[in-house]
Every structure is written in structure tokens, then in C-alpha cells.
């Protein structure tokens, strides 16, 4: 597996692949890789001739109170995992490589950001859209792979690709879970043992909401109340940031009652970790 730190080297590598008629699958990450990332790499390897991954902790998507400095990193392990999953080239830039002129030019996201995580993280998705615009230009992918654990991000990336006419197809991949249902996340290592024992209730609460929909409930507010009441009964250590139900990927309520594709999403804050999870349902 090749490793690059300079954007021009990645661009040249990608250019050669496309000149030779090969398709490029790209999985951008912030490193500290786990099985969820591995599933993206394997999906890309199965559908593309060449797989490129990036590992870059993007400072512009961290808020003032978020811990950018101590975001977990393990580049040696990351490289081993990426190579074992079929990645051909790993892009490991530093901040200066991605932002050579600081933040002179950025991307502003005007829709799909005032709900879910975006509601309490102003500017976060502007940072995501800015760095992805740069990475898409450097890597020149045919397909990009994102996990549905951050479903709001997937919806915004879809809008970014459409709005800027990137010639890219977005592949949204299923959430990878622990045997007890907890969504895989680099933040799970920050949970205390008692928090880790409680955290599977997050997914169980979403399943509780899904069951209500399967039984015929179509009122958004009643579904939210059902899931919230479950959490109030089962989460003693975690603090609920939000529970919401919306049409997806619009992230709005497009109809008076549930219709089409729906997302039920939640964020729960523990002492050193904020966990998100969701399920999507066709109504």
C-alpha cells in the first residue's frame, strides 16, 4: 500500500489510474480506524479498481468546546488495517497540506444543518463540506463511501455532490454494530465500564420506535415521545442531547404524518463521549 502526505502526489497517482481507465473508490476518515471503517474499505474494494482512503483530523469541523487536540490517533495501526482491507493508497496529510492558506475560502452549508447534530454544533458541517470539497478535488473519485452512523453527514454529502456537480456517486454503507447493538465508534473507547454496559440501550430505544411504526403509528411526535420515554427509563448515566424523527435525506417533516423514508436519530452524552445512532425506515 502506498502512503502519501502531499496532495499533489495523491492527485498525480489518481490521475494515472483514471488515465488507464480504472475506477477510484474513496473513503475519507478521521483515522483511529475500526470495523466500521473496514467495512467501507472492503465495499470500495469490491466495487472499484483502486481504493484510496484518507486519514485527516479536520480542525474546521470541531467547535470551540470540542476536543480537537486529544482526538484519538493511531496511524501505524490505521495503515495496517487499511492495507488488510484492500486499500491501495492512504492519504495522510497535515493541516498545512489541506489548508495552505488557512481558511481563506470555505464552504457554507445552508440546508439540512439546523436539526440533529447540526443544531448544537454550528459550523460543523461547513467544516465537513469544506474539507470534502478539497479531498474530492485531490482524489478525483468515481465513488465515495460513507457510513450511515452519521446519517446527517451522508445527507449533506449527497447535497454537496449534487450542488457542486461533482462527478461522484455516493455509496451509503450500513452501520456496523457490536454484538450487543452499540454502533461502532472511535469514541466508544472513552466510555467507562458502567457507561459501556448502559450504551446498548441507545440502539434498543431506536428499535422500540421502529416497532411502533411497524404497528401502524405514523405521528412524528408520538414516535419521538415513545423513544424518549424508553431512554428516560433506561439511561441513568447518559444525558439525551436529542431524539428526533424526520424525512430522509431532506431532514425535514415533508408530510403531516410519516411518509416515505424516515430517520429516527439520537445523540447521548456521557462523561467523555457523545454517541450518535439512528435507524432509517420506509413508511
Automatic annotation (TrEMBL):
Short name of any one Pfam family annotated for the protein: Pantoate_ligase
Cell location: Cytoplasm
Highest taxon listed in the record's lineage: Bacteria
Family the entry assigns: Belongs to the pantothenate synthetase family.
Species of the source: Sporolactobacillus mangiferae
Extra remark: The reaction proceeds by a bi uni uni bi ping pong mechanism.
Function: Catalyzes the condensation of pantoate with beta-alanine in an ATP-dependent reaction via a pantoyl-adenylate intermediate.
Subunit and partners: Homodimer.
Pathway(s): Cofactor biosynthesis; (R)-pantothenate biosynthesis; (R)-pantothenate from (R)-pantoate and beta-alanine: step 1/1
Enzyme class: ligase
InterPro entries referenced in this protein's UniProt entry, alphabetically: Pantoate_ligase (IPR003721), Pantoate_ligase_C (IPR042176), Rossmann-like_a/b/a_fold (IPR014729)
Keywords in alphabetical order: ATP-binding, Cytoplasm, Ligase, Nucleotide-binding, Pantothenate biosynthesis
Catalytic reaction list: (R)-pantoate + beta-alanine + ATP = (R)-pantothenate + AMP + diphosphate + H(+)
UniProt binding sites for ATP: 30-37, 147-150, 176, 184-187
Protein name: Pantothenate synthetase
Annotated (R)-pantoate binding sites: 61, 153
Positions of beta-alanine binding: 61
Active-site positions on this chain: 37 (proton donor)
HAMAP family according to UniProt: PanC
A GO term for molecular function: ligase activity
The protein's Enzyme Commission number: 6.3.2.1
